[in-house]
């Protein structure tokens, strides 16, 4: 990065000197072209050297197997990765082609080498035993900082250890269990909102439906708003009501940040420029929107922290202790972090929890509903289990004063075995985060391969989760019952990587899992979801999380 900045500075200096001497009086367009050439020609020369010489004759990884897909001379395998129906499909095929190798070597933009680990031994070293020897790449870290803040997710080494230790009380089993009523309340609010759409005769679907009382509803924004409401109430003790206020500027800010873009040649060019200049540097419309949205989120986070700190200060002054409702994640974070976490670290972690805490579960829930619409037999079986545990739901109708989920407890949720199997299978087959990246901070031996400092490693969660050598010949099929009889290979913690493993595993896993289950109980117990166009495979795209390229419009009606 330092050499890149130095190159840009040198190019600028040369252009300035040229403007004052050789090109005195030249147009700005000519000078701009000169600056561009001075900046890009050396870089393109390095790229050509990498393509023609280094990768073929000098790379320490030239003995590792490569994909059968031919790489582009400039984009490498990048175009394969972003032209697939399901994120991770290409890497899955490459890993399946090379079952004996701990790594597969492929190329990113500018034909830069990437290693995708396949073996359990390699994954264990990278994620567990030598996890702090593999850090987030600079490009990934800066991209995440733009989207989810610069909190725990981007911390490294001692800073990561310190922050994770301080944050653990907020994600303890007891605390997450105590948040179950919040998950239930907001999940039922989503159920009532959808019921309101079905009951409202003024809301008419744009196209014909097959049965009375059925409507086509885009569930993506509704689920997204609900998970925002959950993270606000459970995480920060604040009522947000995003489900009723979809035009709120904070809701729009998050929607802008996570909106999927169409994959075009211009988009590919932008990605290449971001690899060179860094994320968010080029003043495109998208980058301007993301930065403006981040400013809105940062201001909200700062104001919320100040409000909480003031309340804690007043409570301490008058000798009051926090009530149960005050024991949200942010209050615990401020109380536990006094003197150990700076206001900057608290704000960044708040932003991280805001983004990651709602976006991943929103993605997981949308994917689960899509899978249920394609597998009606699974949906019926799941609904039967839910109603067996909550018989009030079978007879509940809109307008009833009673809350059918009032009896839903943490213990009851965890007793639903098929629900548990379904959730794990959905998260296995299409994980909300399909890939995570690392960069070697030092030379490290990994399953017989010396991984040199600076090497980029891409752990393809979506591919590992579907390897036939681990999950059987039906690994690419949706089958919740597989979890009743697991093979020894599938039981390994390095076969199911949706939440990662090791010191950098998802700190909010239990929070997300219980939230996910509550949402499904509230929705499947009451409604039936069907495909909008039977047999249609909806395209999924991924930048940070996996999302539907064109929303999730499903047929919805009351379940019998």
UniProtKB/TrEMBL annotation:
Gene3D superfamilies: Cytochrome P450
Keywords: Heme, Iron, Metal-binding
Membrane-spanning ranges: none
Cited Pfam families: p450
GO molecular function: heme binding; iron ion binding; monooxygenase activity; oxidoreductase activity, acting on paired donors, with incorporation or reduction of molecular oxygen
InterPro entries in alphabetical order: Cyt_P450 (IPR001128), Cyt_P450_E_grp-I (IPR002401), Cyt_P450_sf (IPR036396), Cytochrome_P450_monoxygenase (IPR050121)
Amino-acid positions noted as binding heme in the UniProt annotation, renumbered to this chain: 506
Entry-linked SUPFAM superfamilies: Cytochrome P450
Cofactor(s) of this protein: heme
Homology family: Belongs to the cytochrome P450 family.
Protein name as catalogued: Cytochrome P450
Phylogenetic placement of the source organism: Eukaryota, Fungi, Dikarya, Ascomycota, Saccharomycotina
């Amino acid at each position: 990065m330092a050499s890149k900045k130095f190159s840009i500075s040198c190019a600028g200096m040369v252009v300035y000197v040229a403007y004052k001497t050789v090109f005195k009086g030249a147009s700005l367009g000519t000078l701009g072209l000169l600056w561009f050439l001075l900046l890009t020609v050396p870089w393109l020369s390095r790229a050509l050297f990498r393509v023609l010489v280094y990768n073929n004759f000098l790379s320490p990884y030239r003995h590792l197997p490569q994909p059968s897909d031919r790489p582009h001379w400039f984009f490498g395998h990048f175009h394969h990765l972003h032209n697939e129906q399901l994120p991770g499909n290409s890497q899955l095929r490459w890993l399946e082609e090379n079952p004996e190798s701990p790594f597969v070597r492929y190329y990113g933009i500018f034909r830069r080498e990437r290693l995708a680990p396949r073996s359990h031994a390699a994954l264990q070293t990278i994620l567990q035993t030598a996890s702090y020897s593999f850090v987030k790449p600079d490009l990934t870290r800066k991209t995440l900082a733009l989207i989810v803040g610069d909190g725990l997710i981007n911390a490294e080494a001692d800073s990561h250890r310190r922050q994770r230790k301080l944050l653990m009380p907020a994600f303890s089993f007891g605390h997450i269990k105590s948040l179950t009523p919040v998950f239930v309340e907001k999940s039922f609010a989503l159920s009532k909102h959808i019921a309101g759409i079905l009951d409202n005769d003024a809301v008419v679907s744009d196209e014909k439906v097959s049965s009375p009382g059925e409507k086509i509803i885009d569930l993506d924004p509704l689920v997204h708003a609900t998970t925002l409401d959950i993270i606000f109430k459970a995480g920060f003790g604040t009522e947000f009501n995003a489900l009723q206020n979809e035009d709120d500027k904070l809701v729009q800010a998050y929607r802008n940040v996570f909106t999927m873009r169409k994959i075009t040649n211009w988009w590919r060019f932008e990605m290449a420029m971001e690899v060179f200049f860094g994320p968010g540097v080029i003043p495109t419309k998208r980058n301007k929107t993301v930065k403006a949205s981040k400013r809105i989120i940062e201001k909200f986070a700062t104001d919320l922290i100040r409000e909480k700190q003031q309340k804690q200060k007043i409570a301490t002054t008058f000798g009051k202790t926090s009530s149960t409702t005050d024991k949200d994640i942010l209050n615990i974070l401020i109380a536990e972090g006094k003197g150990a976490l700076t206001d900057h670290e608290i704000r960044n972690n708040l932003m991280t929890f805001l983004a990651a805490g709602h976006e991943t579960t929103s993605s997981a829930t949308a994917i689960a509903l899509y899978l249920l619409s394609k597998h009606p037999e699974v949906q019926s079986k799941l609904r039967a289990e839910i109603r067996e545990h909550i018989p009030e739901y079978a007879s509940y109708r809109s307008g009833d004063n009673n809350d059918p989920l009032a009896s839903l407890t943490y213990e009851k949720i965890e007793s639903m075995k098929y629900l548990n199997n379904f959730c794990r299978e959905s998260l296995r087959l299409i994980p909300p985060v399909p890939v995570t990246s690392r960069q070697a901070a030092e030379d490290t031996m990994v399953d017989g391969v010396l991984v040199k400092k600076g090497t980029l490693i891409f752990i393809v969660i979506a591919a590992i989760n579907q390897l036939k050598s681990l999950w059987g010949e039906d690994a690419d099929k949706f089958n919740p019952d597989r979890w009743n009889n697991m093979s020894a290979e599938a039981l390994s913690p390095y076969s199911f990587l949706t939440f990662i493993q090791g010191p950098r595993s998802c700190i909010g896993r239990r929070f997300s899992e219980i939230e996910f289950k509550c949402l499904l109980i509230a929705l499947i117990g009451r409604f039936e979801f069907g495909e909008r166009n039977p047999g249609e495979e909806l395209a999924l795209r991924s930048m940070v999380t996996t999302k539907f390229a064109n929303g999730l419009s499903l047929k919805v009606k009351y379940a019998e």
